[in-house]
Amino acid sequence: MKITNHNNLPNAIKRAVENDPYDSSGSDISTTRLIAPPRIRILEKRNWDLLEEDVADRIWSLLGQSVHHIIERSARKGETVEKRLFYKDDGITNSWTLSGQFDYLDKDGKLMDFKVTSAWSALDAMAKGKDEWEQQLNVLDFLCKKNKEKEELIDVKSLSIVAILRDWSINKAERDDNYPKQQAMIIPIRKWTDQEQEDFIRERIKLHQESETLDKLPLCTPKERWRKEDVFAVMKDGRKSALRLLPNKEQAQQYLKDHNMVENKGCSIVHRLGQDVRCANYCKVNSFCSYYMGVSDN
């Protein structure tokens, strides 16, 4: 992959991006890749030498790595930080070597992962859960169990995300009772049973292995594409935000009727087209993806 610097940021930042210490060598698949859509992983693999990413798009990643460096220097006796683990067998991993690196395992068995994220993401995860975080930590828990004796690890008792809120605002905290009151928060993660962990890993590895042999790659699911469906916004003249967002025009028209409002007389219905948010804004391989580019082959 080529790292570009279109915004002419300092060379120190460019070198920091280029010298990313992440290394999953020695494994066939990492935890991060395991939980990612096979389509993205394989398109990256096939087109790696053609990919480009700008330094400016890696700033949040750099901030996340800086937190890991700080946690690394905080370790005390009985604690384990920034540890990469490996596991391979014929059954669960189907002869692939799975690897994963956890951030912090304290002496009480609390396995924690540190995320630099937005306040909205953290609140949404607290309210609804976040599949990727739950999957990641449970795969890491699995790896800890399989490496317990060899790496002298203590038993994992609980899982959690330590969310550091990069966009936290004291003004919002004072105005909104639901907004986080501090710039960091701990989000408990459900610890799966051994069977749930093994079944998940077995199914994901099978999906990735089978996808590598296919001429036509499986599509990412709507959830993996962070799909936002079409909505119809009921707008009031002079107001920026919608009075209501509804899934179809009929419901929007009924809303107007129920509230004694008439379309085009001080109000309107605006059709907002849906979008695959990940594809459009966050996928590094979208220019190589037939789904996103609207062509028939892969």
The radius of gyration is 23 Å
Q: How much helix, percentage-wise, in residues?
A: 25-40%
Shape: globular
In total, the number of domains comes to: 2
Q: What distance lies between the first and last C-alpha atoms, to the nearest angstrom? A: 20 Å
CATH C-level of the largest domain: Alpha Beta
3D architecture notes:
This protein has helices at residues 11-18, 31-35, 38-47, 59-72, 119-128, 131-146, 148-151, 170-175, 194-212, 249-258, 277-282, 290-293, and strands spanning 2-4, 29-30, 52-54, 80-88, 97-105, 110-117, 158-165, 184-189, 227-228, 231-236, 244-246, 267-272, 275-276. It contains twelve helices and 13 strands. The radius of gyration is 23 Å and the shape is globular. The protein is an alpha/beta fold and 298 residues long. The two termini are 20 Å apart. α6 crosses α9 (194-212). The protein folds into two domains: 2-218, Alpha-Beta Complex (Lambda Exonuclease, Chain A); 230-273, no CATH class.
